[in-house]
Amino acid sequence: MRSSRNALVFLSIVAAAGCSTVAEDPRIPADDQAARCEQLLSALDAAVDRAGVRDGGSARIDGFPYLRANRFLASYRYDPMGRPAEALWIDLLRGLDTEARMLEFANLPAQDRAELDLGRSGTEDLSVELTRCGEELVRRDLSDDESVAGLRDVIAVPDEYHVWQRLLGLYPLTALPFLQGVSAYHSDTKAVLATPLEDLPLAGGLLRYGPAPGPVADKQDPVEILARARRNPLRIPLPSASDLTRLFVTFAPTLEIDHVDRNDRIGMPLLDNAGRPDVDVSQTVVFVRAAHTRFGDDTYLQLVYSFWFPARPSMHPIDLLAGRLDGITWRVTLDGNGEPLLFDSIHNCGCYHLFVTTGKLHAREDLRPLEEPILVAPTLAAWRPGDRIVLRIAARTHYIQNVRYQRGPDDAVPRTYALASDDRLRSLRRDDGSRYSLFGRDGIVAGTQRGERFFFWPMGVPDPGAMRQWGRHATAFVGRRHFDDPRLIERYFAVP
User: For 47-68, what is the mean pLDDT?
Assistant: First the structure.
């Protein structure tokens, strides 16, 4: 979570370059700082909504325009907290709003930024001003137990399912054939994952990518990093930027891709001059973010890696799954000792959720009625320091076909990828210096729609198959499941 805030240093420079003024309201007393802060936030919201650049990565909270929530932080609404823990919780909510507003401001067209008047706010650095205003409004609105209870009552993150679609699609009936389709896909995938590596078919040649050299954590480092990271009232692992970098490099996967054409190469996603999504494969980059999961009374750090392909090309004349952009998100959940507890992955549409256990957990079998089962790959051995995860990826479909460890150094990686903050995709630079988000306010990448949406809509997932922003991934057609659900692992796995 802290790592994403590093982007604010860059974005504050962008914001300062475009600052002018928010006109003062003569009806607001000069010494009423809270009211002037509300005026600033209101002016920013109006400009963002007019320009249509609202960021969809976190949820706004009714009555608290200076706070935003994700599913992890929203899960604390029911937890008893002392004042120090409560203050940290609110500070993290405030940080999400500051981060989103900085990105939204950066993405405003130049004329809209010029029409804002930020000069009267006392600083040209918008991030500093937003932080000051957030602190001011928190002091005014959330200074006692009753007011915090009001926040707990309203904080929520909407799920990624449309009830009206399920009603119109007669969900209780149509879900049954969908479950049969899911079962067939699981059977086929398990057969592929059980195939010996040397027997996997090749459509082209293998192209390998690995992380660029960087500071790697030794055996004791992850334990010490996580011990430091938990020194806060909520015991949430919040590593420093340098510690987080060491962990990202240590657990970054090697990608072994069956390569037929440029659609099987990874790179930088973007919108071309016509607004169509594409990937610049000359920029070999994997995007990272820190996330968290809750398991009982513990909170574990998750390292998230996302990589993007230009497209999933058509395999036959009527291919409902083909379309612009494709990608995989790979997640490593670390236990309290800094060792992998579990791996899992999705495609960047939220589809094809795959779990890979390490023997520290086993899958539960008690599913709810009409609930899509989870897909679990063969169990890996326990991770050892120096191990590197290798993902074998199919050509065109980009399905994961094999997951294994590589022991020792990898001398066969001809290409390296750089690591970049996943939040970079929320504000990309055009050639003319203006900025835009890869994602719409609904979290979907426009232009990545698939033909399957015409058949899968009764399951309630908006635009199924389209590429999505972090925090907007529904991962089941039958039932309700989100990739960033903080209790996801606890819900489906138990300690042996």
Answer: 96
Closest to 355 in 3D by CA, of 370, 371, 373, 369 = 373
DSSP type of residue 267: B
Tokens of 458: 């009764």
C-alpha 470/C-alpha 348 separation (Å) is 9
CA neighbor of 456 nearest in space, from 372, 338, 368, 356:
372
Q: How many CA atoms lie within 13 A of 247 on its CB side?
A: 35
pLDDT > 50? residue 2 = no
Alpha helices in 145-219 (DSSP H): 145-154, 163-168, 171-193
pLDDT of residue 26: 53
Q: Quick one: 260 exposed, middle or buried, by C-beta within 10 A (0-12, 13-18, 19+)?
A: middle
Question: Tokens standing for 73?
Answer: 């932080």
Number of residues that make up the chain: 496
Which residues lie below 8 Å from residue 350, measured CB to CB, with a gap of 6+?
160, 461, 468, 472, 473, 474, 475, 483
Buried b (16+ CB within 10 A) or exposed e, 40-62: bbebbeebbeeeebbbbbbbbbe
Cα–Cα nearest to 476, from 349, 364, 337, 372: 372
> What's the confidence (pLDDT) of residue 9?
37
User: What integer is the mean pLDDT of 149-170?
Assistant: 96
**DSSP string covering 329-354, please?**
EEEEEE-TTSSEEEEEEEETTS-S-E
Q: Hey, CA dihedral for 210, 211, 215, 220, is it positive or negative?
A: negative
**Annotated domain spans of the chain:** 2-154, 163-494
